[in-house]
Each structure stands twice: as C-alpha cells, then as structure tokens.
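Entry:
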Amino acid sequence: MRKTCLRAGANSKFAKEVAEKVSSYIYDGIPTREILRLTLRILEKERPVVALRYDLKKAILDLGPSGFGFEEFIARILSEYGYKTKMPPPLEGACISHEVDIVAEKDGRRYMIECKYRNEPGVYIGIKDVLYTWARFLDLCEGFKLKRCLRLDHPWFICNTKFSRDAIQFACCKRVKLTGWRYPQGRGVSLEKLIERKGIYPITVLKEIDKGVRQKLIKANIILCRDLLKKNIKELKKITGMDTQKLKVCKSLITQIIE
C-alpha cells in the first residue's frame, strides 16, 4: 500500500500516514478490494491527483470492452520507450495467416506482440494463451523462411492482468517475453511501472469523463492524458460535447497527473 502510494506520487510522509490510517480499519480476512476502497477514499479526500494515479488498474479496465483501446495504448507506451510500432495487416505463416496486434522494433530486434485485455479484475492469463502465442510465432517464423512475411525475432505477450504459474514457467522455458500487472517483478518492468515511469496515463484515469465520452476520445485517437492536453477547448468540445468549464478542469487535472 505504501509503495503504491509512493509510485502514485505521494511523498514518504504522506504515504506512511495513509498506510497507518488504512491499517486502523483492517481486520482479519479483509478483502483486498476493501483495502483499495479505503485507501482511495482517503486519497480522494486529501490528495485527489494522487488518487487518480493510484487507481491505475481500474483506469486500464475502463479502456473499453473491445480491447481496441488497450492495443492502441500499448503501442503508444512502447513508442515512448523508443520502439517503432505498427499494427500490421494479417501476416502469412507457413500454415495459415495470423492477425498480429502489434509489431515493434528496437535495436534491430523485431517483436510479435500479442495484447490480451481483460475488463474484469482477478482474471489470470493461463497457459493456453501463452501456448497459442508461441505456436503462432513459430508458424510466422516458418512463413518468413518461405518468404511469405517479415522476420520476427521474439514473441511478446502483454496484458493488463496477472499470469498463472504454468504460463510463466512455459514462457521462461521458451523465452516468450511477458509483461503484465505486477509482472515481471524485481529488476523487470511490469505494465504499471512502464506507465508510471514516464507518466503515460490513459484518459480513463479522469473520473470527470463518463464512459461514452471516453470511447469518443479513444476513437479520435486521444488515448493518453497528454493527447488531450494537445487539443484546444474548441476541438475537444466538438469531439466530446462537454462544456468548456468541465474541459478546463480536466486539463488542469491532467497537468498535475503527468508532472
């Protein structure tokens, strides 16, 4: 809890105070979601901007049921880290054609990226998903040998949830790169760390924007908070239908979020 508050931009003193306040409400068997709710209630009252960053997992869940916004979001994150990204047409393998979510390239290495979006919390990515990605990668590698598609060097599976133990074990064995919520740990860079380190927050962190408006923004390729800052009020009013004052509040909050 304290570490998450620190990552969300709280200073050490305030993070400690929040942890102590929440601890006074904790009882044996308290659900994790209740701890999150208590923490958010304190943050929203005392540090609203920190609260918006703290609830990052929920913001990603709110990207939309189709997952399209998530794929676009991941491509934008990778671009911030120096990857050249594209969403290619179907690629021809040796056996069949495959829809690849993202092809990313950096330092001469090309990655086949599978994005898996879950819009419900607590759902794990299992071994079947990782096996499927590995099999598709192998078929595309054979397709490259037959001169049917571009060269791919590594498979990379990115999701907004956690991986099962079998999925991790298989991925480690076959060198499938995994990036998810709280994974990899230690020296690795998990999804939330990729976002937090460069302030690449999705527009869904803003509670002032309802679900319908979020989807309008995503369709207009306004996926990151910083994208919204680049648009003037007149453009945003046309896209969203929101009033001027509310848009000004959103812009002010975003400026503080990405500081």
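The mean pLDDT is 90.
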